[in-house]
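Action item from last meeting closed. Structure (267 res):
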């Protein structure tokens, strides 16, 4: 089985852009492991109130606002999607975090920041969607301060999956997931020091519980309502939904192979 260590292919990038657009319309983004995984990532990256953090692929701003509120740090969140950034700014304003959190439209492969700016560079469920990972890692390292942490919570193949499942994930999500060894190898090849990696299995009911708790039931229900309305209005969304239903096996089988990992290195 061949896994792409470099990043996305062009068809995968198109699928990822479509998936991101649907998430922005639904008003929901998610990562494996819930808040527990975010806390583990923050602890591994030594985040505290004196740190300035760059959140790559901030989505709707949930992680950035959580870090600012929980640890007292300042956070810069970036995302390619204007809709995501706009909703992130609304979240920060609603939570009274505008003095601590800022959001910008930016590409992880060409960061608009000076060298040695951030105490830590982090991301959750983002590396799998980056087109050129080696280029992105050069940027992460460039903008991190000497001795700074670069860490990610990434979807991970806990067991080697069948090729048809790898292809399904690429077609539906535009994502190129790796094994724990694959993610560590990318970090090490980029030049990061003291690379660590811990991987975890996730049960499907546990993951759904994380998502409902993070959104609350009303928001979670609202997201699904927006999705059904999108199905009615958008032929592209209906085509995507039909592809989703073509999953090889069943969703329980996917979680046999699938989990997440916390991968951290030092500049």
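Sequence:
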């Amino acid at each position: 089985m061949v896994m792409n260590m470099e990043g996305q292919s062009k068809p995968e990038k198109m699928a990822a852009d479509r998936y991101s657009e649907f998430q922005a319309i639904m008003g929901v983004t998610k990562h494996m492991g819930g808040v527990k995984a975010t806390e583990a990532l923050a602890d591994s990256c030594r985040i505290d109130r004196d740190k300035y953090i760059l959140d790559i692929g901030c989505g709707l701003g949930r992680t950035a606002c959580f870090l600012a509120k929980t640890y007292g740090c300042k956070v810069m969140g970036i995302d390619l999607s204007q809709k995501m950034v706009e909703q992130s700014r609304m979240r920060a304003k609603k939570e009274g975090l505008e003095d601590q959190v800022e959001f910008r439209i930016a590409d992880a492969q060409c960061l608009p920041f000076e060298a040695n700016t951030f105490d830590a560079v982090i991301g959750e469920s983002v590396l799998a969607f980056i087109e050129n990972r080696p280029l992105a890692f050069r940027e992460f390292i460039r903008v991190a301060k000497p001795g700074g942490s670069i860490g990610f919570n990434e979807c991970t193949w806990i067991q080697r999956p069948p090729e048809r499942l790898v292809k399904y994930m690429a077609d539906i999500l535009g994502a190129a997931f790796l094994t724990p060894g694959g993610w560590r190898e990318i970090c090490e090849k980029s030049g990061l020091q003291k690379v660590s990696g811990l991987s975890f299995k996730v049960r499907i009911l546990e993951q759904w519980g994380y998502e409902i708790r993070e959104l609350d039931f009303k928001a979670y229900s609202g997201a699904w309502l927006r999705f059904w309305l999108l199905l009615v209005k958008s032929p592209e969304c209906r085509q995507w939904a039909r592809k989703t239903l073509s999953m090889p096996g069943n969703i329980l089988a996917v979680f046999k192979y699938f989990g997440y990992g916390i991968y951290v290195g030092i500049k």
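Note appended to the action item: Strands lie at 52-56, 74-79, 101-105, 118-124, 144-157, 193-201, 258-266.
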